[in-house]
Amino acid sequence: MTSSAEPVSRAERKKQELRREIIDAAFDCFAERGYHATGIADVATRLGIGHGTFYRYFQNKRDIVDHVVDDLVGRVTGALTAENAPDAVSTLAEYREQSARIGESLARIFGEDPRVPRLLLFEAPGIDRAMAERILDLFDLAAALTSAYLSHGVELGYLRADLDVDNTARAINGMILGTAISSLRTPEAQTAQSEALRRVMYDGIAAR
Amino acid sequence: MTSSAEPVSRAERKKQELRREIIDAAFDCFAERGYHATGIADVATRLGIGHGTFYRYFQNKRDIVDHVVDDLVGRVTGALTAENAPDAVSTLAEYREQSARIGESLARIFGEDPRVPRLLLFEAPGIDRAMAERILDLFDLAAALTSAYLSHGVELGYLRADLDVDNTARAINGMILGTAISSLRTPEAQTAQSEALRRVMYDGIAAR
DNA sequence: CATCGAACGGAATCGCGTGTCAGTTTCGGA
DNA sequence: TCCGAAACTGACACGCGATTCCGTTCGATG
């Protein structure tokens, strides 16, 4: 797949490598001081390159933050979709396992590096309207996925027949969001947090 | 209470009034173009005053956004606490009613003016670290309140005895957060959304 | 080793927004 | 009607950071 041939001259590879490094350095800076507070010079200095060089790789400041966010969004959607087809499941027990798996996957991304949720949830939406829309798109995508899982469960009869799949999906994603945000301050509560989340989903909160 | 006397000269009242108007205008601007994109001049122009005047009322740009946020946080905490003592409730049915009431109250604030959630959730956290912490504080406060309700319910026996109150509180607040965010794009779904939220809380999602 | 083009660095440019200040207006009281 | 204090105004000084540009360096090629 990556062998789409072409020159791939040694120099070309070097170039792609630096491009990659710039994206990473920008991510570091944005996460550390925030988007508006970091200058192009900061990013360049962190890599030990002149800031004029930056402009050989990216159009402008707005351009790079898009690439940084691309990267993070990719990681998240990857975790959401990888190895987890909605129709791979046919009982409630299997569904619980699958949701636990997805939950862990997200927890890993968010928990291992709190800068990821910080940037996506706290920094990005304040950059401009377009970026805020991108984040909302991400929420919508997540809602659509969750919704598909729920629909599947309703069809097979292991979830409530009268479930309002779309809105319930958003509610569930909200809980996940809440977990991600909590973990910004108390990363160690992650596990208990997602356990509580699953209990609410499956058992509700009322006494029996 | 407000009659703490003192001069309250006519001029003094005028002054407080303008101060108030500046806060409102700043809110309008921040919500419209975002914090970083609005200049003091924009705020002043909107009121038809010179921007020098602004500095007679507030120290600087950072100062005013604090006051704007104060205002919004006040509205939200007001909705969360007003007329809703945790111990005013003693059965599950009453608890459902109370939670519906609080939900409606929040829905009113967020639904009537989407700029409120947009500013609190999307704009504020990106301003600087201190502001992000303020928003996290607000989440913590909300979690503590919800937690108190849940504890009360566990003690009286109408909620599950093994409920992890703290983490469940955060999960529930997450769902509320999800609702607020959804309503940024689809305000009309508010009601269905919070209905779904309550169903998850009380009935879970599994078939019986 | 000479040549040439591409990549690099960082000094200089440019525009913008914050915050100040000195002159002007408003207003209440005598 | 007049005076002085307080409030207002907007031109201006200032700093900061994004972007440009050109002299220098690097490295491939013959």
Notable characteristics:
208 residues; mainly alpha; 2 domains; Tetracycline Repressor, domain 2; 74% helix; homodimer; DNA-binding; Arc Repressor Mutant, subunit A; elongated
Blueprint (SSEs and pairs):
The structure is a homodimer of 208-residue chains.
Chain A: H1 10-33, H2 40-47, H3 51-57, H4 61-81, H5 92-112, H6 115-123, H7 129-156, H8 165-185, H9 190-203
Helix pairs in contact in A: 1-2, 1-4, 1-6, 2-3, 4-5, 4-7, 5-8, 5-9, 7-8, 8-9
The structure holds a DNA duplex (30 and 30 nucleotides).
**What's the assembly state of these chains?**
homodimer
User: Quick one: overall form of chain A?
Assistant: elongated
Q: How many alpha or pi helices of chain A?
A: 9
Largest interface: A-B, 61 and 61 residues
CATH-assigned fold name of the largest domain in chain A: Tetracycline Repressor, domain 2
Order of helices and strands of chain A: HHHHHHHHH
Return the structural class of chain A.
mainly alpha
Unreliable parts of chain A: 1-7
- Count every beta strand of chain A, where a strand is a DSSP E run of 2 or more residues: 0
